[in-house]
Amino acid sequence: MPGIDFRTARAELRLVQVLELLGFEPRRRLGQQLRGPCPLHRSQTPASRSFSAHLGKNLWYCFRCGAGGNALDLWAAVTRQPRHAAVLDLCQRLGRDVPWLSPPRRARRILPPPGATSSGDSPMPP
To answer: For the whole model, what pTM was predicted?
Structure first.
């Protein structure tokens, strides 16, 4: 099975999509920055704004529990899945293709013509 291209996954999976899946309701919005309760430690106070998400940068941080990262990191942390499983799960839920790595190309070895020596001299006598 080919590996996952995590660089592509991080670039294509948007934080806003993960927050929608989690049912995140911001308490405050300022431009592309959202503040509200942290989906990881589930802050219960009505005015909690310990969680900060910047949609333009696709990054988040919780000032209470100290966790942070990108959309994939948030999904993996909230669902308690390893990163590989989190990509598969998140892509499936969002109806997206999994960004698989291309299989490595094998270097083709160029063989000398029949009868040639390895040093490139004329063919060996019979």
So the answer is: 0.76
CB 9 within 8 A of CB 17: no
Domain count, the chain: 1
Please report whether residue 110 resides in a domain.
no
Mean pLDDT computed over 52-69: 94
Residues 6 or more apart in contact with residue 61 via CB below 8 angstroms: 51, 52, 67, 68
Among 51, 85, 57, residue whose Cα is nearest residue 71: 57
The token duo for 54 is 């910047």
Q: What is the pLDDT of residue 87?
A: 97
In a domain, residue 103? The reply is no
CATH of the domain at 76: 3.90.580.10
Tokens linked to 109: 């070895």
Q: Is residue 22 part of a domain?
A: yes
Residue 8 near residue 96, CB atoms below 8 Å: no
Please state, in angstroms and rounded to a whole number, the distance separating the CA atoms of residues 87 and 71: 10
